[in-house]
UniProtKB/TrEMBL annotation:
KW Chaperone (keyword) present: no
Membrane topology: Single-pass type I membrane protein
GO cellular component: membrane
Database matches in Pfam families: Mab-21, Mab-21_C
Lineage: Eukaryota, Metazoa, Chordata, Craniata, Vertebrata
SMART domains in alphabetical order: Mab-21
Compartments where located: Membrane
Residues of the Mab-21-like nucleotidyltransferase domain: 63-223
Protein's name according to its UniProt entry: Inositol 1,4,5-trisphosphate receptor-interacting protein-like
InterPro entries: ITPRIP-like (IPR026250), Mab-21-like_nuc_Trfase (IPR046903), Mab-21_HhH/H2TH-like (IPR046906), MAB21L/cGLR (IPR024810)
Gene: LOC116956095
Length: 378
């Protein structure tokens, strides 16, 4: 029987991404991103195209202290604006929970004659990027991708840099022949404080006007309050690692393919909001890891995992300064709802997680030594 300290050894040997190496990769990636953005600014059409802010917004696991061993990936939001327009979020009952429309309004009201005399650049912006006065996320993304591709032909880099994907635009930096850094570049509009709307389409809706709310900065801030390393962060990273690598042990694992890291992070935030927390010890790590697995199994059994911020008035959300319009709103988003995960997938993922929890020492040992156990016993 494995002792309670085994998860801690597993974390140090297999799970943790070496901090110095991570910092070096982040530095390399950010230099390349800034070079690309400079090229995009130089090739955009002034006054017609949106402006690209110089400050980038760092999000995702590599900046949250949640990066685990594996592929090197970063997420960066690129904030857009326009000198002639203000952008305002609009929500109505027909808008899906977690999404807004962005109204584009002129900063200065002009008569039709004055607008004609001043040229058509503002009109061109409206024609290219808006529909019925709303900023179209689909058009913004197509423009962003096209501009990035043009910029890539004029910038210089010592690395082989390419672009892949469409939603989001993925910048691939080949550092060595056997190693690359991938950076997801996401166009964003600043809403309020650290709340942004990102141009990520809703797959189940054909509406090209929808913008998804991003709570990434709030999540990063909350996680930064935890001592490093803490059993809370370690437990989440261990479970992330087990999910990401579970197909090594079970090829058809629905825990790996049916759930995503955001499900795990959301569950972890809900546990963090509870008053009693395990101590930051080896035994505390063991307790937190089992709490996290038990909570996820319970949520999958109920088919309910609510978004941590929307409609949640917890003190943790307030301390993070999430706008009250979000936390006090009636909108609640169930991440385990049928729109996101079907019932069969959720059931199979739950069964797999139950088996992982029951056989955790064997699972950990098998990641140490893949030939140590047969998958059939798990």
């Amino acid at each position: 029987m494995a002792s309670s300290i085994e998860p801690d050894r597993f974390y140090g040997r297999e799970v943790e991404f070496p901090p110095r190496l991570l910092a070096s990769h982040i530095d390399t990636a950010e230099r390349e991103v800034r070079t690309l953005l400079a090229g995009m600014r130089s090739t955009r059409w002034p006054k017609i195209d949106p402006s690209i802010h110089y400050d980038i917004v760092r999000t995702g696991s590599s900046y949250e202290g949640l990066k685990v061993n594996g592929d090197m990936e970063l997420d960066i939001m690129i904030v857009l604006s326009h000198p002639e327009f203000n952008f305002f979020p609009i929500s109505d009952p027909s808008t899906p929970c977690g999404f807004h429309k962005i109204k584009a309004e002129r900063r200065h009201v002009q008569s039709q004659a004055a607008r004609w005399l001043s040229g058509t650049v503002c009109c061109l912006f409206e024609v290219c990027f808006t529909s019925n006065g709303y900023l179209m996320s689909s058009q913004i993304y197509e423009w962003f991708q096209s501009l990035a591709k043009r910029a890539l032909t004029v910038i210089e880099s010592k690395y082989d840099v390419t672009l892949a994907g469409k939603f989001p635009v993925r910048m691939v930096i080949k550092v060595r022949t056997d190693f690359e850094i991938c950076v997801d570049l996401v166009p964003a509009i600043k809403i309020e404080g650290d709340l942004y709307a990102v141009a990520k389409p809703l797959k189940t809706s054909p509406d090209p006007d929808l913008w998804r709310l991003s709570f990434s900065v709030f999540e990063k801030n909350i996680l930064s309050w935890l001592p490093s390393p803490s059993c809370h962060l370690k437990a989440l990273k261990i479970l992330k690692y087990l999910r990401e690598h579970d197909t090594r042990l079970e090829e058809t694992s629905q825990f790996a393919s049916g759930l995503c890291s955001y499900h795990l992070k959301t569950a972890s935030l809900h546990l963090l909001a509870r008053p009693a927390q395990p101590p930051d010890t080896q035994e505390g790590l063991h307790e937190r890891l089992h709490q996290l697995m038990d909570f996820l199994v319970e949520c999958m059994q109920r088919r309910e995992l609510n978004h941590f911020f929307m409609g949640n008035q917890s003190s943790l959300a307030r301390d993070a300064q999430v706008p009250s319009s979000v936390t006090h709103g009636e909108c609640r988003l169930n991440l385990f709802g049928g729109k996101f995960v079907n019932e069969s997938t959720l059931s199979q993922a739950r069964e797999r997680l139950v088996r992982i929890k029951r056989s955790l020492p064997a699972i950990i040992q098998q990641h140490y030594d893949p030939g140590a156990y047969s998958c059939n016993i798990l």
